[in-house]
Design a protein that fits this description.
Blueprint (H helix, E strand, L loop, with lengths): L11 E4 H4 L17 H10 L4 E5 H4 L6 H18 L2 E6 L18 H21 L3 E5 L4 E2 L7 H22 L4 E5 L8 E2 L4 H8 L8 E3 L3 H6 L4 H10 L6 E3 L18 H13 L6 E3 L9 H27 L1 H10 L4 H8 L3 H9 L4 H5 L5 H13 L3
Helix pairs in contact: 2-4, 5-6, 9-10, 10-11
């Protein structure tokens, strides 16, 4: 048994809205008291988290005066310092207030779009003062219930204009933010724009400053759409755009459950941790999850500790998988190398194409090659279950 305490190098973070969630859901009132800012920061210090994330209105009421904002900022900085926390990521709440009932950056109303950009600029100011280097965009109301209500082409153009404007604001202010985009297929809108991570990976290439923009994929959001989250993260890693990640868990096809990391789909969680560790992901690992509605204050702490502990356990198991001689022998067997053919197909040329056409490749011989995937998967399960 290893040491599964949180490792600061893992940069485990929680949002104010995660451990601070009062247990409310669409069908029920809160089941625990709303925690004041200082107590949330104290809790994160107690469970040995690396950092804290926030929406602007998690800490700063939407109608707060400048004096009130200054007092809250002072309290926030003190709480972080006292508990050894950093502010890793900030974002804007562009979904709770009624003004955003039909979207923010994609609203049909130019004044609403302007207000959303203005609110984001002010929120970016807050994040920068707290030390955040990553700024997240989750379009909670950027969508529709009926396509009769909004032109989807115009919506994408409006979103692009807003992001281009905010990139320039970050540059002009010297904030040096990395922008990250968080996809979700539905909820709270019937249909959300930029439904999956791949949507944003394509969108980023159309921006004025694609170099400062990446993605923040979330386990639950891709599982809601029935997708393999590991593959979405791999796509982001492959193009160098995984700047941040939201870890939680989710039953496939359900509403956004935000369960404790690894609590619903342990094999998926294992391969996700293995992917992040194999490719040496060095950004924040943010647990965008909530404790059960039944939990009290002490159980919320157990939830937070559990998220980090599960990651550390799976990290150890991933290393075990990588060092298991039988498993690695099977991996070598199924990954057939051929230096000559790999060189031939790496880059097209007329000569390489002619050589490839002339190369004898036996279809029946290739089809008969052994692929012991059942055994490989069973050995993987035995490592996960702790019997190997």
């Amino acid at each position: 048994m290893g040491n599964y305490d949180p490792d600061p190098k893992m940069k485990f973070t929680f949002g104010l809205w995660t451990v601070g969630n009062p247990g409310r859901d669409p069908f029920g009132e809160p089941t625990r008291d709303k925690l004041p800012l200082a107590k949330i920061l104290d809790m994160l210090g107690e469970v040995k988290a690396y950092g804290v994330n926030l929406h602007d209105n998690d800490a700063f009421p939407i109608d707060a005066s400048e004096k009130e904002k200054a007092e809250i900022m002072k309290e926030f900085k003190k709480g972080m310092k006292d508990n050894g926390l950093v502010c890793a990521m900030a974002t804007t709440n562009l979904f709770t207030d009624p003004v955003f009932k039909d979207g923010a950056f994609t609203s049909n109303n130019a004044q609403v779009r302007a207000y959303a950009i203005q609110k984001t600029m002010r929120s970016m100011d807050i994040g920068a003062e707290l030390g955040a280097k990553i700024y997240d965009f989750w379009g909670g109301r950027e969508g529709i219930e009926s396509d009769a209500t909004k032109n989807p082409v115009d919506a994408v153009k409006r979103f692009r204009e807003a992001i281009n404007f905010l990139c320039e604001y970050s540059i002009e202010q010297g904030y040096n933010y990395k922008f990250v985009f968080e996809a979700k297929p539905n909820e709270p809108r019937g249909h959300m724009y930029f439904a999956v991570t791949g949507s944003y990976l394509a969108f980023i290439q159309t921006l004025d400053h694609p170099e400062m923009c990446g993605v923040n994929p979330e386990v639950a959001h891709e599982h809601m759409a029935g997708l393999n989250f590991v593959h979405q993260v791999a796509a982001a890693i492959e193009v160098g755009k995984l700047f941040h990640i939201d870890l939680n868990d989710q039953e496939f096809g359900r509403y956004d459950q935000d369960f404790r990391f690894g609590s619903a789909n342990l094999k998926h969680a294992f391969f996700l941790v293995k992917l992040l560790e194999d490719y040496k992901y060095n950004g924040p690992r943010h647990f965008d999850a909530h404790a059960y509605r039944q939990s009290n204050y002490d159980d919320v702490k157990e939830f937070a500790k559990g998220c980090m502990r599960t990651y550390m356990i799976l990290k150890e198991k991933a290393a075990h998988w990588n060092n298991d001689a039988e498993i690695q022998g099977m991996v070598k067997l199924i990954n057939v190398k051929d230096a000559g053919l790999e060189k031939l197909t790496k880059k097209f040329s007329k000569a390489s194409a002619q050589k490839l056409l002339a190369t004898p490749l036996s279809r029946s011989q290739l089809a008969s090659a052994p692929l012991p995937y059942e055994k490989l998967d069973q050995l993987t399960m035995e490592i996960i279950m702790g019997v190997r």
